[in-house]
Design brief:
Arc Repressor Mutant, subunit A; alpha+beta; 12% strand; elongated; Beta-Lactamase; 5 strands
Length: 230
């Protein structure tokens, strides 16, 4: 996910919804649960905070992140502190103290791809309505997280397929699909490419299987969506 760049429209949609809930500061955080890869972050926290948090890999020891790994329910950050080790101690505690990161709330989702997404809110603006807004819109926020996460996962999937197109379809398969997409019949495509019609049919069957669709028409539609035909 390191090289993936999310669509700005997703960020705009997220911020628009949260503004309607009266929530100002947020961070969407997507990570693979069993691989220590750099997470994807969409946030309006100060850039310096986010950069330091990622560069120092604080997410590996952040009690919010670690608690989210074990929970499917939303939780207040105050619930994960202990008297002996408030906010996890060490570097994370120092970072939290410097930026007053104690009044916050996190929603989580765990998907079938072993990914975990967090939608966190920090009351760094000391908004007195913050807890009331979280409580009032709790169900809406969870649904928003599901919606945004689904869009992000779809975008990542398309990005991965597009940037590995040669591993999806061979050069010959793409060539055949391009002619068929232009309205050429199998016989016409075979003449143009100098091969047998049965060879065209053989490749089209493979294309349909590789793209996990039901027929050639659907294969063309999906190939266009994945930017395989350019």
């Amino acid at each position: 996910m390191e090289s993936f760049r999310y669509d700005a429209r997703i960020k705009h949609f997220l911020e628009q919804k949260l503004n309607s809930f009266g929530i100002k500061r947020y961070s969407y955080f997507l990570s693979q649960k069993f691989i220590n890869s750099t997470p994807l972050v969409i946030s309006n926290y100060p850039d310096a905070w986010v950069s330091y948090y990622i560069d120092a890999e604080l997410y590996l020891i952040d009690p919010v992140f670690l608690s989210a790994k074990q929970s499917i329910l939303p939780f207040a950050w105050s619930e994960i502190s202990t008297a002996d080790e408030p906010w996890g101690g060490g570097e994370v505690l120092k970072f939290a103290q410097q930026h007053n990161l104690f009044d916050g709330y996190t929603f989580t989702i765990h998907d079938a791809n072993n990914c975990m997404a967090l939608l966190s809110f920090c009351n760094i603006d000391e908004d007195k309505e913050f807890p009331n807004n979280i409580r009032k819109y709790k169900n809406d926020i969870q649904m928003l997280l599901i919606t945004v996460h689904d869009e992000i996962i779809k975008a990542i999937r398309i990005y991965q397929l597009t940037n590995n197109k040669q591993s999806i379809l061979s050069a010959r398969e793409i060539e055949i699909l391009q002619w068929v997409s232009l309205g050429k019949t199998y016989i016409e495509s075979a003449i143009i490419l100098g091969i047998r019609e049965r060879t065209i049919k053989f490749h089209m069957k493979n294309i349909v299987n590789k793209l996990n669709v039901s027929n050639a028409k659907h294969a063309i539609k999906k190939a266009i969506e994945l930017h395989l035909l350019e």
